[in-house]
Structures are given as structure tokens and as C-alpha cells.
Amino acid sequence: MAKPARSAWQCSACGHTVSKWVGRCPGCGEWGTMSETAPVVAAKGGPIRTTPRVSVNPALSITNVPAEPARHRPTGVGEFDRVLGGGLVPGGVVLLAGEPGVGKSTLLLEVAHKWAAAPGGGPALIATGEESASQVRMRADRLGALHPDLMLAAETDLAAVLGHIDDIKPGLLILDSVQTISTTEVEGVPGGVTQVRAVAAQLIAVAKARGMATVLVGHVTKEGTIAGPRVLEHLVDTVAHFEGDRHSALRLLRGVKNRFGPADEVGCFEMTETGVVSLPDPGGLFLTEIAEPVPGTCVTVTMEGRRAMLVEVQALVGGSAKEGVVPRRTVSGLDGARLNMVLAVLHRRSGKKVLDREVYAATVGGMRVTEPAADLAVALAVSSSVSEAPVSADIVAIGEVGLTGEIRRVTAVPRRLAEAARLGFKHAIVPRGCGNEAPKGMTVSEAGSVDEALRLSAMRWAGRG
């Protein structure tokens, strides 16, 4: 007698499947995300046998495979093209994720307008399941993004979206968003794991068959990861995150995966009343303009992808905490764990009594810096605040601080120094062995420890050039 089919329970956040209901998903740890799916029928034992068949696409020598179909087509939005490796690829699928209100729809409306206005690209179709066509038209009026070849369709059914693709034959499809589209071919609610997987798979197949560049907008969870099944990121060709603080005009487009180019590029944008504007040279965006140096500030150079960007680090050391009270540590734009480590090194290795004092540290301009190369700048800023002695305004500090007080090497030092020299900085403090390729007009000092770096900074301030 055949065994009855058993129900399965699937997590709506990560797609993990278990045989019985649990309150917390074993795969991702989310609570209350398990839902019952269709019964699972146990397969019969024995090996799987697949009958060979003749492929409709026979294998070719790699020398005979054309490379032209994988060429990038620029969209006209410079920083967007930079992150994608030169533009959109016909048949390529991009997954763009970001928090609500960060400006994803505004950016893609500009991309669609540039695509439609360019000759030879074909119409651009925006299929929106979150807004009406009238709402998108109002935004286009504000941005000046009107063109006869820019088509709009407000749909939530996949079959209707595919019908629009057959009628319009667009060169670019923007789906905003993939979580709002559903199909009757599979069970599940819109935005669920099953629906998102099925919708994405069909759209990717259509994009590949037609050579249609496609951009799928994805929602993010409260942790900042892309909502839906992880397989969605594996199916697409490119994954990018659009980031930014809603209280700041700065927006960053960060590449995470790219089959057609570098996966570590970062594009800079500014949110204005007229839309999202590319910032090809954000050099001084994260620096303050002050007449005289003040204690507690130091400039470093961080690498965002392949781009070197100068960032000012600020620190304020307050009074000592009461006995038995943990001193406050507040950071903005920096890694709190690395700040605590730098404070411990300054306290133990350099004699700066900071562990029992309140410390506040932040970056300028809303930039988030997490790489260890900013450790030395944090140390100099904290030490400057403690001693009330400013760091010279023409110094940049680059280096990772170790627990023994040594300064370790970091990557891309020549590129960082070249960017600092371009913006007018005359002196740099770097780890030992990294000062061989000093740019013209810049003096580079090597430091092996935090104490040595503090002495070099003090000498520079005392000499003032």
C-alpha cells in the first residue's frame, strides 16, 4: 500500500523546507515565516535515468562563439554604467535592490528615458506593480523624462506583462518590483518564495530568448538583504544595491555580482529635486571646509570598489564616566567594534587614558567606512581630541592598527595617495613599505606603530609645513 503524501513547510524568507511546522526557520532564523506548501511525494528508489537527445544548440568551438551579443550598451547614466561594467547587456538581467524611498524608481526612470531617447536601442518598457501609470507619469514630468518610446504599464499579472512584451518588443524592460508580480501557474501569495522564483525564471528566459536587457527591482528585508529566495540572486546576471541615508542627498550604487564586468564597483549619485544626478568626481564631498584645523579630525582615503574616496573622520572624547558606569561609545558611519579596538590600543600601547571616557566618532557627509584602512585616522582623531592638538589639515592617514600597536599594510596605497594628492593634500602617513611610490608634490612618511604615527603628526603640526 502506497504511503500518503506528506505536507512540507517552507520559509517565506529564505525558502528553507522542513517536513513539519516550526516556529523559527532553521535556515535563516526568522520567526513566523513557515507556511505549508503542496504535499511532497516520495520518489521511488533507484538511480535516475535520463534519455540523451540531440540539442537544438550544438556545441561550438570557443573560437567560433560570437562575443558581440555580450557587449555592453551604455545607458547614458554614467555612474549606473560604471557599476555595470559599461552599460546594460542585451539579454542580461540586473537585480536592483534598496530600501523603500531611497530612489530606485527615480534612478530607473532616468535610465529608461535615456535608453528610449538613444537611437537603435528599441523602446523601453516600465512595468510597475507598485504604482499607477499616472503616478509614474507625474514623476516623469518632474524629472523631464518624457519620450514617445518610453512605455508604461501598470500590471501585477505575469501573463499581462508578457503580453506587453510581445506587443511592444522592448529593448529594455524594467519591472518594479518582482515581489508584486504573480502568476496563476503556481500556488502561493505574491511576494512569496514560490511566486518570486517562478516569475523571475520566466522573465529571465524571455529576456535571454529576445536579447532584451532587463532590470528587476527587489525589496529588502529589515536586515538590508534582498527579500525572497536566495536562488533569485543566482539566477540573474548582475546584483546591485542602491544605498543611502534618507536624511542625506548622497546615494551609492554598489555592485555585488556581475557576470559581465567587475563586481566591486561603486557609483555615486546625488538626490536632487530634478532626480538622481551622477557624481563622477565626489572628491571633496566627504570633507568639511573650515578656516583653521580643529582638534579631533583626521582625513583618510577609503576604497569603495575600485574608487578611492577621501573621508574625514571626526572624534570627540568627553569626560570620564562615573565609577561602575560603562562609558558611552557612539559611532556614525564607522565600525563600532573597530573603534573599541583602537581605543584599547591607544590606552595600552600609547598611554592615552580613553577607556574610561565617553567617545563619539563619526564620518562627514553620510559616508560609511568599514575597512581597516581607516583605523589610523580614527586613532589620530581620538588622540587629537584628547590632547587638544589638531592634526594638520594637509595630512591623510592610511593604515590598519593591530592589537600590538603596529600599523599593517593595506591594499591600493598608490591609488589612495594619488587621489589625495589630486585634491591638494601634501603629506601622508602610511604603513612601512608603502611609501615608495609617492605622487609628485606629496611627502609620504612611513610609520611602523601608532606611537610613531602620533609623533609624525605632532611634528607636522608643530612645523606647519
UniProtKB/TrEMBL annotation:
Any one Pfam family match given in the protein's UniProt record, by short name: Zn_ribbon_LapB
Annotated region described as Lon-protease-like, given as residue ranges: 358-465
Entry keyword annotation includes Metal-binding: yes
Keywords: ATP-binding, DNA damage, DNA repair, DNA-binding, Hydrolase, Metal-binding, Nucleotide-binding, Stress response, Zinc, Zinc-finger
Recorded GO CC terms: cytosol
Binding-site residues, ATP: G98, E99, P100, G101, V102, G103, K104, S105
Span of the annotated motif RadA KNRFG motif: 257-261
Keyword field contains Transcription: no
Gene Ontology terms, MF aspect: ATP binding; ATP-dependent DNA damage sensor activity; damaged DNA binding; hydrolase activity; zinc ion binding
SMART domains noted in UniProt: AAA
Domain RecA family profile per the UniProt entry, residue ranges: 69-220
Stored InterPro entries: AAA+_ATPase, DNA_repair_RadA, P-loop_NTPase, RecA_ATP-bd, Ribosomal_Su5_D2-typ_SF, Ribsml_uS5_D2-typ_fold_subgr, Rubredoxin_2
Family membership noted in the UniProt record: Belongs to the RecA family. RadA subfamily.
Function per UniProt: DNA-dependent ATPase involved in processing of recombination intermediates, plays a role in repairing DNA breaks. Stimulates the branch migration of RecA-mediated strand transfer reactions, allowing the 3' invading strand to extend heteroduplex DNA faster. Binds ssDNA in the presence of ADP but not other nucleotides, has ATPase activity that is stimulated by ssDNA and various branched DNA structures, but inhibited by SSB. Does not have RecA's homology-searching function.
UniProt-recorded name of the protein: DNA repair protein RadA
Source organism per UniProt: Actinorhabdospora filicis
